[in-house]
Amino acid sequence: DYGSILEIRNMEVFGDGSSVVDCVGKRRFKVLQHGKCDGYNTADIEYIEDKKVHGEASEYLTILHNAVYDQAHTWFNTLKSSLRVRIIHHFGPMPAKEPDPQVRRTSQRAQK
């Protein structure tokens, strides 16, 4: 089994008891063993680290990374202004292009 550590950014509870949770996956893990303690699900986990590529594979990754970023940026700029504002309000501004796509960064998103 595998999972992801989630950062809860916002939660809205409705009168009928249902809720909407806005969250972002932060770090992946593999479940080594699981159980229950005091009614809660528990697990021993091992974090998953991406394998770094080198040489031609690294060059290809950088080219692909740049192309996808540029395509996303172009797409975003073709949206109507009102939609861009809604996206920025919900997710924050588009991050700058990473100089090294293999470096894992933890973003610090401003709280609303």
TrEMBL record:
It comes from the Eukaryota. InterPro entries: Lon_prtase_N_sf, PUA-like_sf. Residues 92-112 are annotated as: Disordered. GO terms for molecular function: ubiquitin protein ligase activity. SUPFAM superfamilies: PUA domain-like. This is Uncharacterized protein. The lineage of its organism: Eukaryota, Metazoa, Chordata, Craniata, Vertebrata.
